[in-house]
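Dear H.,

Thanks for agreeing to be a second pair of eyes. The structure we're designing against is below in token form, covering all 243 positions.
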């Protein structure tokens, strides 16, 4: 699901609830404007990602993006304060994928080991499979303070979702429960994210093999251990990105 599609889904739910209690009327201009606005945002978003992937983040200008999206240069700033904010939108899209995946595993009762093993593949589908996009994300963390703070906020929300995922595995007896769920979630995120970033330096066809190898090694440390009870030891000190 794309960034704009997430926004449109919420808008649609609001409109549906209103239509349920009222007779059908012609679509008001405000609805058409909202949809038109979402379409333009989507075009800018997709054009920017395509350019980042093909040309590189640093080499892509706002003018390149608006030209590819076939809109005026000034239009870009009605939707995104800077090209770095495209990466924040991309992060929101990835967060939406993760939320949907966790909701699905709760409904389906899929074994957590199987779910975790496939999660890396789900999260690195296009456009995340492009090394230029991954390198661009790293650049966003080194960008201006507002962009960096927004990216760190995204990471906190990802950490919270990963913690829920690990807690579910602990409740089902599939993941060791002698360590805090947050600590295991942090190790999982570090392992997968670090693997993807290192792969992005090479940009070859080994991404899935790298993720599989990293997960297999990680699983030997987080799998449930019969007879081991929850430790009373304190977790290692908190870090800002984990909170």
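And this is the sequence the design step returned. I haven't edited it by hand at all.
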């Amino acid at each position: 699901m794309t960034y704009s599609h997430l926004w449109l889904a919420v808008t649609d739910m609001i409109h549906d609830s209103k239509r349920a209690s009222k007779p059908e009327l012609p679509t008001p201009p405000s609805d058409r404007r909202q949809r038109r606005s979402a379409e333009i945002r989507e075009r800018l978003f997709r054009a920017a990602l395509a350019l980042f992937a093909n040309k590189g983040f640093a080499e892509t200008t706002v003018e390149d993006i608006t030209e590819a999206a076939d809109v005026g240069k000034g239009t870009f700033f009605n939707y995104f304060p800077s090209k770095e904010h495209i990466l924040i939108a991309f992060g929101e899209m990835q967060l939406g994928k993760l939320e949907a995946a966790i909701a699905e595993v709760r409904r389906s009762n899929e074994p957590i080991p199987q779910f975790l093993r496939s999660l890396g593949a789900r999260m690195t589908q296009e456009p995340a499979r492009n090394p230029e996009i991954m390198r661009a994300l790293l650049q966003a963390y080194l960008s201006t303070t507002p962009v960096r703070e927004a990216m760190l906020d995204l990471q906190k929300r990802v950490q919270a979702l990963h913690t829920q995922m690990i807690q579910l595995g602990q409740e089902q007896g599939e993941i060791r429960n002698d360590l805090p769920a947050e600590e295991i979630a942090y190790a999982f995120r570090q392992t997968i994210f670090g693997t993807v970033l290192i792969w992005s330096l090479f940009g070859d066809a080994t991404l899935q093999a790298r993720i599989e190898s990293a997960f297999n090694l990680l699983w030997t440390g987080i799998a449930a251990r019969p007879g081991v009870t929850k430790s009373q030891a304190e977790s290692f000190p908190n870090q800002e990105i984990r909170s």
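Two observations from my side: The two ends are 27 Å apart (CA to CA). Residues 86 and 133 are 11 Å apart (CA to CA).

Warmly,
E.
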